[in-house]
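Sample A.
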Amino acid sequence: MEKVFVHPECPFSAETFNLLSKKYAGQSPDFYIAHTKDRLKYVEEPLNYILSQVEEQLPDFIKEYINIKYEGFGSRTAIGDLKPTGYSIVFYLKNIISTGRCISRAQLMLNLENQKLTLGFYSQTDNFEVLKKKRIYPYIFHKNLIEPLTRYHLPNNYSFSLTQETTDFKFNKWACDSISAPEKNFHGLLIDIICSDDPDIILSGLKIKDTKIQIETSLKSQELLRYSAKKIIIKIAQAFKKLFPLFFIFNFYADNKYFTPIILSEYFSVYEKEFNPVYQLEQISQTTGLKTTQLTQWIHTINRKGQTIIQGPPGTGKTFLAQKLAQHLIGGGDGFSDIIQFHPAYTYEDFIQGIRPQSQDGQLTYPIVPGRFLEFCEKAEICEDICVIIIDEINRANLSQVFGELMYLLDDRQDTARFITLASGKLFRIPTNVRIIGTMNTADRSIALVDQALRRRFAFIPVYPNYEVLRQYHHREETGFPVDKLTSILEDVKRAINNKHYELGISFFLTKTLAEDIQDIWQMEIEPYLEEYFFDQQEKMDEFLWDKIKDKLSNS
């Protein structure tokens, strides 16, 4: 294996995968005997340590139902009749709650294979129809479980396959490289499984003797070696927490005396403590007045591109919207969001890394200190799910100077081999689970500083004043304010400005006490803004002074 960067705290080494690659090459038994100490040192001991720590990370609720089969270390197993895997560890259902009617074997698995670590869920059954009727139907149609099963989903880096074997041959009925939230939530996934019948096979009259379902994600060796033990442990634990509902459903009959829907509901209550609360697009729609179809398109754009700028005139709620979108993106996962604000003095050293004088034991030192974005990415690497950084007023800084060589990494976010070498000598890439949302005030003249090289690396979401949202707000809050008269005035202002980038936003007026505050808002916030825009058109400015506006608001 070519030389790669290895994290000093990684429990594995290049020798780990050298040994595994030789195993895959079909070495003789003498080779394994001669390398027993190396196998223990580079493979089994690190796995032993990791699994013991993973078990500590799992909630007590999950540990109550699973049993880790440590005797799987070092064995050459073939899960699902695949080619021999590496060193395999499996999580089984504890015998104390076994149904005694084993129509399927469902497990959580971890395989250290040739050049990768694979985590996932595996189920095998010789009676797929019974599996569907007894272990899937009762859950997906249970009135108390439909909503939570629909809310929660797996990250989009999990692959799926359903393979069935007849008396004559094996075929893959359903497989896809990845899923994307929220289309493939747990409920949708189970629906896909029960609807996977192939009409050609059914018409042929062939009997299905074996069905295997696998849902998994992998870390390639080069990526794994760049992780500390802590990162690896957290990633494995988070994956097993996410996959646990499938493990639970595929192991239980709905009529089992130990089972009630309350148990699975309990899991989701534990899940909500382990992960971020789910924040649906419908909730954003109710708060902002934006249509869910529009919000869905924006979320798709953010996930597709990786970085997006919400742009529009002042007072349109760009930062508020960015925070709500971030809340949705991290909902149901283990990710997090952070917000920073750019300004003219913001530098590369603040954002990526730079030398910072520090006093240590009375001596002045000049270490290279990570900036906000570098710290954010290092923290995000540990997470399994989406992490969002919001850059407020992104165009107020000198972006070419602040981003530096980061521009190279923004170009193809899905290319995991895309790295830069920082001044500290550290290799750096933006984790694929990181999303960047910037906000840009189009009335700010510094927008000209955003050059085309940077523009093509971002998708742009335009947000303009929506007077219908203003009406809905005051009707919903029952403020009693004459909102229709206000929107009529704002329409007049809009026509007078005649420039979509300088339109007057509605956030000035989204307050329950607008009747008491309107004079202050207009004279101290609206008039100064309009005076700047109409600085050489006094006659237009005179039309929108408070003395005239108050009359329009009071006229019946």
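Sample B.
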Amino acid sequence: MKLKIKFYLILFILFNVCLYAQKEVTDSISYYNNQANINIKTNQYKDVFLYTQKAINYAQEHSKIKEQAAQTAKLGRLYYSLKKYDDAIEKLTESINLFKTITPSAEYAEAYYFLGLAYINKNNFSAAEICINKTAAISKAFEITGNNELIRLQKAIIYRANQKYDKAAAILNSIISKPDKPEISDTKAEALYQMGLIEEHNNRNNLALNYFNKALNLNAKNQNLDQKSNILLAISIVYEKMLDKSNAYAFLKLHLNLKESIAIATNEKLGINDYEAFKEKQREQNLIRLNKEKQEEQKTKNFSRLINYLSIALIVILSLLSFSLYRNNIIRKKSNQLLTEKNNELIKAKEKAEKASNARADFLSIVSHELRTPLNAINGITHLLLEENPKKSQLHYLGSLQYSGNYLTAFINDILEINKIDSNKIELEHIDFDIKQLLEDLQNSLMELATKNKNTFILDIDPDIPNNLIGDPIKLSQIFMNLINNALKFTKNGKVSITGKLQSVQDTKAVLFFEIRDTGIGIPEEKLKTVFDSFSQGSTEINRKYGGTGLGLTIVKKLLNVLGSEIHLKSTLGEGSVFSFGLTLAINNNQTPAEPKQQISFDISLIKGKKILVVEDNKINQMITKRMLENKEIICEIIDNGEEAIEAVKKNNYDLVLMDVHLPGINGTIATQAIRKFNSITPIIAMTAISLNENRAMLLSYGMNDVITKPFIPNDFYILLCKYLAD
């Protein structure tokens, strides 16, 4: 019997030992660490975070500070690898504080190293430098040599960021000169990339490109995708600076595709919902722990603190009541005086604001006006050079110069247009026009852009819209041109449609609705409220890719406000945009539809051999205008002032006069008035860098037949000459 009892006792003890051993296996730092490593290999980061946090909790519960520090540092490195730099900084700092309480080790140095990398990615280079220097000091103290090149590389990156290019280059060149070995290929590739950035900063683009290409070749051996993405972007930027648009676009496209792939892969690893759930659970656990630690302390302090607060509150209330009673009489006496002073200040502030607004308008007007004359010279000389059969090597530069000149011209025109609207100096016309014909003309003029981008371009106009409407066709053309041009520009291989509907007819007014719809790139939701602001586009990359001044939609919004309407926008990123607005226009029932104007094209036979007087005081503009006319076999005479121009028209028979508005002595408008007293036949065309205070109607009132604005487009200039020189 005793033997049986001993036997069962032994079995019971062995059973409990086995249970304890089994528990120890599945509830230990080693077990959780192994499980985390297994899940890293299978990209199950949800479970990686879970087991790493369990290891931290286990170490904390069992007061194993070294293991707690190591596992916390591991969690920080995981956050860094997934680009969660703020979380990485938090955990790595926490691990370093734990390491400080124990004997320093290689893991201590590694925690500082990754903290430095996280700060570099956050562009906090002062903090990064402290961390990297600390890593170097710990590594030197413990004779850790395996990470020397990595530490030197990070120092070089920090030097470059702080514009200490000589120090950075010295370190980078020493790394690049090392023999090629698999274990340092990633470091050498990064060093080559950093040297390329330095050479790019110094505008040595070919040398920068050489470094980037070497870095890209070396990167192919280690498959560091983030590094490859950075190199591709850097190559694209250098090609753009070298005006090689084709290669710049190609490498930018490779960069964006790779960047998107990296983001997708990271998101798949991360599992945004799982990650947020994990972070939320961590926060809850931390709150529970902190609450437990503070609960006992709080209990002892609450009562005394409450008594103190009540005493202080009572004293403060009594003091405030006494002070209020004292101040009340003083405030009553001064209230009227203060109100009077404030009113005076508001009046002065209003006057200052009005003066500032007027000064801004005058400044923009003067600047835009003064830029036009030299810009006319740039555009004119570029046109003349392109007509003189330049070398192939020069065509690219001349084309770029012509593009830049046209871009700057459009930019100045847009600024002046916005300034006119803001200064209430815009004048609306009220003339008869056919809006259906206007939209058809716009469709024809923009068909080339639609074809270039392989877009289906549809115009759907309600036939019930009256033919004779009264309004301002020029302003409406500006509105439609900006909206349709944007739709065609930001859409490729898609569809752009313009819809016009008659909603109702009220007495002698037509209520119209217009919609411009595209299937282009769309606009991000966060940009929908700001897209009508000046200089606003979707992003820097979009601005570089598609161009534009960022003023078109601002002009559309402001013009529609002047016309008593409002622009509406709906857009989905990647699916397209819809711009819509309504208009109420008067109907002229007393007139028959106007015959469409005959389009005039350039025909050299109409102007060949004609005699033109050019009245222009700017020597460069004299030379350009004369050369442009003589290239078309026109006889040209130059006069630089209004007084001589009047005498010349009296003595000679000219087929046409080109009259600059701003001349020394009497200006072009006064000279035109004087000529019209004895000659009402010869066409006179005004040439002006039109300013805020000038407009077409004002210039025509002096007797001029037409106006051409500097800088002018050569083809428009010749077409205008054909219009008035045709027999």
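B remarks: Residues 331 and 672 are 68 Å apart (CA to CA). DSSP finds 25 helices and twelve strands in the chain.
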